[in-house]
Write a structure and sequence with these properties.
- With about 140 residues, the chain is α+β, with helices and mostly antiparallel strands.
- It has a single domain, classed as Beta Barrel (Lipocalin), CATH 2.40.128.120.
- The protein contains two helices and eight strands, in the order H-E-E-E-E-E-E-H-E-E.
- Strands 1-2-3-4-5-6-7-8 form an eight-stranded antiparallel β-barrel.
- A hairpin with a 2-residue loop joins strand 7 and strand 8.
- The radius of gyration is 19 Å and the shape is globular.
- It starts with a helix and ends with a strand.
Length: about 140
């Protein structure tokens, strides 16, 4: 009896055990806010079930390598490129949120992972905004 219960549990769990973890990608970026330029790091986790969607986290660094902002982002691939939202918080301070967009860095990308992988090799650029403020950003290879 115990053996048949164990076999049933293993049969139910085997699909979950055999699923591959979502790939994690990472890279660096530069961003402008008015005349100031910042650099940062990002990571992304791509859903194996919804390959046109991604989410991740990011940090923004100043010239002394101090974290200025840290936050999360999410986005989706469309025929024209990428669109998404972001949230960030100044350490021990105010929270911000906004939107971002970018054109596709490589032609023929079918998934968000394809687009990010192309961006880590060749770069990609876009814009960000929050309230009445905005700027530009550029992804580059991981440091």
């Amino acid at each position: 009896m115990k053996l048949s219960i164990l076999a049933a549990v293993l049969a139910l769990c085997s699909p979950a055990l055999s699923q591959q973890p979502s790939p994690t990608l990472q890279g660096s970026f530069i961003a402008s806010a008015g005349p100031a330029t910042y650099r940062g790091k990002w990571n992304a986790r791509i859903s194996s079930h919804r390959p046109k969607l991604a989410a991740g986290s990011w940090i923004l660094l100043n010239e002394r390598n101090d974290i200025v902002l840290q936050g999360t982002w999410s986005g989706q691939k469309s025929a024209a490129g990428w669109k998404g939202t972001w949230r960030a918080r100044v350490l021990r301070g105010r929270a911000y949120s906004g939107t971002w967009s970018a054109s596709e860095p490589g032609l023929g990308s079918k998934t968000f992972a394809d687009m990010l992988q192309a961006a880590t090799k060749a770069g990609a650029s876009g814009t960000w905004s929050t309230g009445g403020y905005g700027g530009a950003w550029r992804l580059g290879p991981a440091p």
